[in-house]
Write a structure and sequence with these properties.
Helix content is 26%, strand content 29%. It is built from four helices and nine strands.
Length: 208
Amino acid sequence: MAFIADTLPSWRDDPLRPSATAETVLTAQLCALLNSASRKSRGWDYLQFRMEEPDEIVRGRAIDLVAAPSGQLIWIDGRRYSQYEPLLPVECKRLPTPPGRERDEREYLHSRHGSRGGVQRFKAGDHGAAHTHAAIIAYLQSDDIPAWHARVAQWVIDLSAETTNWTCDDGLALNTHDPERGMARLSSNHARDRGLADIALDHIWIRV
């Protein structure tokens, strides 16, 4: 996550990057720059990044972005990872959620219209069931980070009152905030369905 967080401002501020607002386009641009940066960064050249990667367990679901080994084997906590096995699944979301009949403003967390919610997918085991650590990148397209943190905190409170599988323990802790770079790093921990172990999520928010 440190490599992604360090690279995000360079991606956002790259004068060669075409202007874009759509989530898929932004993620494609980010994936391209992450791959270029990892090849040129000593100590990070073992990484590659891919988009729309099939989930390892729920094969019909695609993960927005994954980090994986590049042409070598990596062992982490007794588990072997090859170039075919993601090290880190990453969901990417826009804040605010784009308008639409089937969209939910709280989609970063949960969608009442299906399984589109970012955190919801990890909680349900639809994404990252083979992992206990994952990440979400938020492209902030309005307002500032403190305003979004307060809004998301209220959404968690509301969801804990409305549903049985959300509690206040699903809240996001704001760990670092850099107003000059328009970035923040947050974290959260979530109980999961399907008998899965809890999952820890890193959140990187960046003003775009």
